[in-house]
Amino acid sequence: MKIEDVILVEDDRDHAALIQMALVAREPPLRIRLADSGEKALEMIDRMIQNENEQIPKLFLIDINLPGINGIEVLRRIKSERKLRGVPVVMLTTSRASNDISRSYEAYANSYVIKPTSYEGIKKTMTELQSYWTELNIS
Amino acid sequence: MTSVAGQLFTTFTVLCCGAVVVFLIAPRSAIDFDQKKKRVMLGAGLGLISFMVVMNPIAGPLGSSFDMRAAPVIMASFWGGPISGLIAATLGAIARYTIGGPYIESGVLGLFIYAAAGLVAVRWAPKRRRVGAIGWMVIGAGATILATPMFFIGRPFDASLAALSSYWSTLLAANVIGVTVLGLLMEKMRKLLERSLSHADDLKIALEAQRRSTRDMEGILYAVTHDLKSPIVTVRGFAGVIDQAAATEDWATVKDGVGRILRASERMGDMTDGLMQYGSLAAKQGSGSIVDLADLIPRACEMLSAEISNAGATVTTSTPLPTISGSQDDILRVVLNLIANAVKHGCPTPGMPVEISVERTDEGWVLAVADHGPGIDESLHVEAFRLFRRLGRQESQGSGLGLAIVEKIAGGFGGWCAIAQTPGGGATLRVLIAPTARAAALFRKDNAA
Fold first, then answer.
1. Cβ contacts of B11 within 8 Å, gap of 6 or more
2. CB contact under 8 A, A97 and B226
3. What is the ipTM of this complex?
4. Which of A13, A18, A72 is most worth mutating to test chain B (most B CB atoms within 10 A of its CB)?
5. Are B178 and B68 in contact (CB under 8 A)?
6. CB contact under 8 A, B390 and A67
7. Of B229, B237, B377, the CB nearest to A118
8. CA–CA distance from A31 to each of A10, A59, A115, B4, B145 (Å)?
9. How many whole angstroms separate alpha carbon B237 and alpha carbon A21?
10. In this predicted structure, which of A33-42, A75-84, A122-131, B23-32 has the lowest mean pLDDT?
């Protein structure tokens, strides 16, 4: 069975590890591909657009506050590409700032989720995101 | 006497109303006549007063010489220079010509003589100095003496002498009273306006400081709610992971989790310390003194000797180093942060150089700290000065506030900081540590805008 990709754009390695641990086992299996900066995320996106063999991910999970190119810019890039605009993008961040929320939705984010502080919370959030955006949601 | 009292009353009223109108229309113009436009406005305003005085049916030239047409013309050239004087005299002259009657030539010429008298008076009493009642009386009398030859224009010598003996004393009294009244009035109003405008400027500065402080608070609040929350997620998240791993006796995961929690809590400690340091900066600014960089920079290197030695960096300083004016504590903190930053991020392998130099530019003294490390990506050149924006990897130590502190200190005294590429590779951090008064004023103006 073909492995499906989730692209995680996150500069905090600890958060990335927590998210990875909180993923629920499913069939087909999900593989997290990490981009630890906005620049690396854009490189991945470029490869997906230019290379026909490159797999289109099932979901993008993007942190907003990244050094250099931030999460909103990555989101804009995804939504401006015909090949990728149908892939759901969830902004997963610690920011509760209304400005960040409105900017995300203005750039066509599919969802905005505030990172829970507990491991249980992270697991619950990841389970919900997984079941809604990668299983039930037909994109 | 009634006629003289009537003339005095009406011309006095016209002078006062005119002066008030000029000040109300252009309060700033009433203080600084440094632009041609303002000088033209002043000349036109005072010229209009002169026009009204001459056209006044009671005080007009056909009645007697007890009018005060000289005062506004003298004021125009005194405060605004030749352009203002010429405009005011021309307007007065037009009025005098329109009325017609005898002695038109001397009447018209007299107004231009008064304008010249105002220019002579400026030489004697500089504009900025307070002239005072006696000073204005002397100017009024002097202008009358200067205008005396006009009695001899356009009439026989005998008739001129007769006119002189009849009218000169009246003319002298009118000019002395007119110039003194209008001069004192303008001086008083300038003083009042200067005070109120300076008060308005003070309020503007206070408001700008308040705005800056609010912006700072918003930045701190955002940083606290976002950046400080980040290690909390790590600590609580891995506490949960450890809890589950311990239940299954997965000690490797427990060990990894403990390590991550320790690093995150250390980072949180650094961040709160840095935030306290950042927040306390505003209160310490403004204590200016003489700072000898030849003494301060080696002292900063000594304070960072452990970090420099750990990185194996070679710190060199260009000579001679200047003595500048500023706050010793603030400049030391800037130097410490820049050197620490260069050693931490610009010296990945031992033996790498960090070069410190200070150069004189048009804007003031600029401190530059150059390293030859991996450099800073151009997309981070502005963002690097934001709160909690760390240039290195997540694992690197530090609060992420070093450059934000540098920027806040530099902004406090009107300086700036910027990142440039070091020729041959690496990053150079440049800070305007001692701006000239002009550069600091420009910075504050830009900031306010």
1. B53, B56, B59, B66, B67, B68, B174, B178
2. yes
3. 0.84
4. A18
5. yes
6. yes
7. B237
8. 15, 11, 20, 105, 102
9. 10
10. B23-32
Mean pLDDT of all residues belonging to chain B: 80
Q: CA of B357, closest CA in chain A: separation in Å?
A: 28
| Per-residue CA distances from B204 to A44, B88, B207, B441 (Å) | 50, 35, 5, 14
Q: Which residues of B touch A116 (CB under 8 A)?
A: 233
Q: Considering chain B, what percentage of its residues have pLDDT values greater than 70?
A: 82
What is the arithmetic mean of pLDDT over B344-355? 87
Calpha distance A47→A131 (Å, rounded): 27
User: Tens digits of per-residue pLDDT, B167-211?
Assistant: 788 888 888 988 898 888 888 877 887 788 778 777 887 787 788
Residue to mutate among B266, B379, B391, B393, with most A CBs inside 10 A, is B379
Chain A residues inside the 8 Å CB shell of B389:
67
Whole-angstrom distance, CA of residue B88 vs CA of residue B136 = 19
Closest CA to B394 of A105, A118, A10: A10
B332-337: Cβ within 8 A, 24+ apart? B332/B296, B332/B299, B332/B300, B333/B405, B333/B406, B333/B409, B334/B367, B334/B406, B334/B409, B334/B410, B334/B431, B334/B433, B335/B296, B335/B297, B335/B300, B335/B367, B335/B369, B336/B300, B336/B303, B336/B304, B337/B402, B337/B403, B337/B405, B337/B406
Contact check, Cβ <8 Å, B236/A118:
yes
DSSP string, B162-203: HHHHHHHHHHHHHHHHHHHHHHHHHHHHHHHHHHHHHHHHHH
Cβ distance of A119 and B237 shorter than 8 Å: yes
Record: contact A96-B244, CB cut-off 8 A: no
Distances (CA, A) of B214 to A97, B217, B444: 16, 5, 16
Separation in Å, CA of B263 to nearest CA in chain A: 10
Which of A11, A13, A14, A20 would you mutate first to test chain B, the one with the most B CBs within 10 A?
Answer: A14
So what's the pLDDT on residue A40? Answer: 93
How many secondary structure helices (H) and strands (E) does chain A include? 5, 5
At what angle are helices B251-279 and A13-22 packed, to 10 degrees? 140
